[in-house]
Request: fold
Amino acid sequence: GDSVTQTEGQVTVSESKSLIINCTYSATSIAYPNLFWYVRYPGEGLQLLLKVITAGQKGSSRGFEATYNKETTSFHLQKASVQESDSAVYYCALSSNTGYQNFYFGKGTSLTVIP
Amino acid sequence: NAGVIQTPRHKVTGKGQEATLWCEPISGHSAVFWYRQTIVQGLEFLTYFRNQAPIDDSGMPKERFSAQMPNQSHSTLKIQSTQPQDSAVYLCASSLEGWGNTLYFGEGSRLIVV
Reply:
């Protein structure tokens, strides 16, 4: 079935350093799924950070970027210089559309940015 | 435009009791999902409705969990005979159907079974 694997557990980065959270997907039901990054900031609900629905394209939001790479089936989340306010839990997800649209999520990566 | 509304936000229940969680999806959204969020398992899919009809409940523990969507503005998740391992944040989400559409989440209902 369809699935997502991402950097698991906790990641700690110093402020102003670069960040990469790895995400790879397996989409057996569809060749080109839609790919998403969701984020949950402390005290807030889960919300969309960025999405890309076309292979080869890049999405960006709040200084974060992710490129849809169909060759490596990856959708890594990157930021050049993190801030303390980026501390949150990040989820990579894919959606398929085979008869109905279901969403599959990774287990989440908890990012802590230390000043 | 209100987002997905979930009630209650917090619920503490005794082992063996019943818990019912409510969700009001975004108006006009035809797809409604329920997920369970824990630190260990992350986001687990439970069930999915489209136009109020149950489409996929493959993630639901069959014995004690049930979900309904009696109308387009309301879905419920019921857990009978709650167990400590049911403690989690239960998330409801809704979306429009179709390619590329985004899933919008409620703030969740935190269930604690003591």
